[in-house]
Amino acid sequence: MVISDASSKVRKLIISHNILRSIFVVIIIIIASGVILFSNLVLMRDKLDEKVAEIERLESRMQYKEVEMANLEKKTREIETKTKILENYLKDVEELDRMVRDITGKGGY
């Protein structure tokens, strides 16, 4: 390598091949590290996107289950109400049966 300017004499700068090789190896290592880091970042981003999608699916499934649970609770209340009505009807029927048996003179149960 030759270094010179207008006011100086021509000077030679001697750089050994080992130093050049070392610089080249360091640059290659830095580039390889950068590529590996970038690929790891891309892979982690993909995994993160997959996890986010999975969480969203689970949230929608939970919302569906909550709606399903609310519907089941509503049906349970309806069944309880109808059961109470049927129990009242059964009591009325039993009372009417007793009255009919008393009127006809045919004994109880």
How would you describe what is shown here?
It is a single chain. The longest helix has 88 residues, at 17-104. The chain is mostly helical and 109 residues long. The relative contact order is 0.04. It contains 1 helix and 2 strands, in the order E-E-H. It has one domain (2-104). A two-stranded antiparallel sheet has the order 1-2. Helices cover 81% and strands 4% of the residues.
Helices and strands in order:
Elements: E1 2-3, E2 11-12, H1 17-104
Antiparallel strand pairs: 1-2
Largest sheet: 2 strands, antiparallel
Rg, rounded, reads 45 Å
Number of domains: 1
Q: Low-confidence spans: pLDDT under 50, at least 5 residues? A: none
| Count of DSSP strands | 2
Q: What class would the helix/strand composition place it in?
A: mainly alpha
Helix and strand string, N-terminal first? EEH
- Please give the share of residues in helix: over 70%
Terminal residue distance? 123 Å
The largest sheet has its strands arranged as: 1-2
Q: What is the approximate shape?
A: rod-shaped
- The total count of helices amounts to 1
What percentage of the residues does DSSP assign to strands (E)?
under 5%
Let me know the average pLDDT.
89
Write a brief caption for the model.
With 109 residues, the chain is mainly alpha-helical.
Features:
109 residues, mainly alpha, 1 helix, 2 strands, 4% strand, rod-shaped
